């Protein structure tokens, strides 16, 4: 194995084999030891430490694992109430089948496909197993969804006896052997480019974007590569004549911010490969949240707001019951195409009040209500502490203070007469007329 080799560690001229994990001294096309063509080589290979790992065709890969007869057949996981493709295996993708495609279209493109209804319980279980293997590599694992996470592998070289690049390759082999599915990994110096890299050569990819090549690489890319630039925003950039990241590299920060606000700042930095976001380890156990998935995707504030209010009250009730409060409010949205958006707002002091959670969430939500259709909305707090220092009356402004007092009164009434005794203006009547979905708690 790698660690046992008397290897010239960190010599950038040496690549390694992704199948037997041995160093490769020369420019051979195949591994000198096992003959594999899967060699990793890059001038910065042994210096980079920020990784993004994403499982390949996740749901479909699990179904193929569990039924070997499907191995060489096109497999689509999906259907059910929404009637869309959740994912398709890479064979079905050759025929043009894609996630979120209506099932009838997918079957037009690939009539011979085997369609399997989703088994979420199983996928969640495998997702957890993948995560446990990640956490064995570093405590700095930040999950983004069921099948992907960022990992900060800096400082782990001594622990593993090998540089992060090799740790990643070994991880991929372990997942294949132990869990029977495959992953792709991206390695870079920042989150943005690590995520871009992991998508490069799927399936079973290991791609590297180094610092030296970042600017040149980015210059060639379409603006949609930038995290947060969806179809609608790309269209407005296009109206301003901006199509490539390279064009953004030539614009000034002030100009971008004047035109596009906070997003302008992001465009400025990310287009230049500047991203200092750190990897935040999984903080599930340290947060209280509630979320709901809609029956049909929604984009209108008028429909999102009452749900946000109901969820905020739910979170607040749980905080109050446990005698705790949170200092950071987290808004979570999942778009129609399953992209997760989380937005945080740090409060001056911890809160347990539904109204403060709601108002903060509302402020965050307004920025995201850009016509995007959402399938999931969630709200929560983290940075938890005891509630003795929560919502100090002398720190909140007069309006919030009034609302805090009102909320205290509502709590007392609900305590006496039950949950439905008082409904606020935001949620009043919604339960009867539009049948809002029940929040699902984390
Ligand atoms: N998913 C879904 N509907 C979507 C997108 C994804 O139900 N529109 C589910 C099914 C996927 C899983 O989430 O298997 C992970 O999403 P990815 O975007 O990572 O897609 P895959 O893992 O399926 O494929 P890839 O190899 O492109 O990562
Ligand atoms: Mg995936």
TrEMBL record:
Positions of the UmuC domain: 50-230
Active site (UniProt): 148
Keyword Ribosomal protein among record annotations: no
UniProt catalytic activity: DNA(n) + a 2'-deoxyribonucleoside 5'-triphosphate = DNA(n+1) + diphosphate
Cofactor(s) recorded in Swiss-Prot or TrEMBL: Mg(2+)
Gene Ontology molecular function, alphabetical: damaged DNA binding; DNA-directed DNA polymerase activity; magnesium ion binding
One of the GO biological process terms: DNA-templated DNA replication
Cofactor annotation remark: Binds 2 magnesium ions per subunit.
Annotated compartments: Cytoplasm
EC number: 2.7.7.7
Binding-site positions, Mg(2+): 54, 147
Keyword DNA damage assigned: yes
Alphabetized Gene3D superfamilies for the sequence: 3.30.70.270, 3.40.1170.60, 5' to 3' exonuclease, C-terminal subdomain (1.10.150.20), DNA polymerase, Y-family, little finger domain (3.30.1490.100)
Site, Substrate discrimination: residue positions: 59
HAMAP family per record: DNApol_IV
Family: Belongs to the DNA polymerase type-Y family.
Function: Poorly processive, error-prone DNA polymerase involved in untargeted mutagenesis. Copies undamaged DNA at stalled replication forks, which arise in vivo from mismatched or misaligned primer ends. These misaligned primers can be extended by PolIV. Exhibits no 3'-5' exonuclease (proofreading) activity. May be involved in translesional synthesis, in conjunction with the beta clamp from PolIII.
Protein name: DNA polymerase IV
Organismal lineage: Bacteria, Pseudomonadati, Pseudomonadota, Alphaproteobacteria, Hyphomicrobiales
């Amino acid at each position: 194995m790698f660690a046992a080799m008397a290897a010239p560690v960190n010599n950038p001229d040496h690549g390694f084999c992704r199948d037997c994990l041995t160093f490769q001294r020369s420019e051979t096309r195949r591994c000198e030891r096992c003959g594999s063509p899967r060699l990793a080589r890059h001038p910065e290979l042994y210096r980079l430490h920020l990784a993004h790992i994403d499982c390949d065709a996740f749901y479909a890969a699990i179904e193929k694992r569990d039924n070997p007869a499907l191995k060489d057949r096109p497999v689509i996981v999906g259907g059910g109430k929404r009637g869309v493709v959740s994912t398709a295996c890479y064979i079905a993708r050759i025929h043009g089948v894609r996630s979120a495609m209506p099932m009838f279209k997918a079957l037009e493109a690939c009539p011979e496909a085997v369609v399997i209804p989703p088994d979420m319980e199983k996928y969640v279980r495998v997702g957890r197993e993948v995560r446990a293997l990640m956490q064995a590599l570093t405590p700095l694992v930040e999950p983004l969804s069921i099948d992907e996470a960022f990992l900060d592998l800096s400082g782990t070289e001594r622990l593993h006896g090998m540089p992060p690049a090799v740790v990643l390759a070994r991880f991929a082999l372990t997942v294949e052997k132990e869990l029977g599915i495959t992953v792709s990994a991206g390695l870079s110096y920042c989150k943005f480019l690590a995520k871009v890299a992991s998508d490069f050569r799927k399936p079973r990819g290991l791609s590297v974007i180094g610092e030296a090549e970042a600017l040149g690489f980015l210059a060639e890319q379409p603006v949609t590569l930038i995290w947060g630039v969806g179809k609608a925003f790309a269209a407005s950039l296009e109206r301003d004549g901006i199509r490539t990241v390279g064009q953004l590299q030539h614009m000034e920060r002030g100009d971008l911010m004047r035109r596009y606000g906070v997003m302008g700042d992001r465009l400025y930095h990310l287009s230049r490969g500047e991203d200092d976001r750190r990897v935040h380890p999984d903080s599930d156990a340290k947060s209280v949240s509630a979320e709901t998935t809609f029956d049909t995707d929604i984009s209108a504030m008028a429909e999102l707001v009452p749900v946000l209010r109901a969820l905020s009250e739910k979170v607040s009730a749980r905080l109050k019951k446990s005698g705790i409060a949170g200092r950071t409010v987290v808004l979570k949205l999942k778009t129609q195409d399953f992209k997760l958006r989380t937005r945080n707002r740090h409060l001056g002091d911890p809160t347990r009040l539904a109204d403060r959670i709601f108002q903060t969430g509302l402020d965050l939500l307004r920025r995201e209500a850009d016509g995007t259709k959402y399938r999931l909305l969630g709200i929560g707090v983290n940075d938890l502490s005891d509630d003795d220092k929560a919502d100090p009356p002398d720190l909140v402004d007069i309006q919030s203070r009034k609302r805090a007092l009102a909320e205290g009164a509502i709590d007392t009434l609900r305590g006496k007469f039950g949950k439905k005794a008082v409904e606020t203006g935001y949620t009043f009547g919604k339960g009867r007329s539009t049948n809002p979905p029940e929040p699902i708690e984390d």
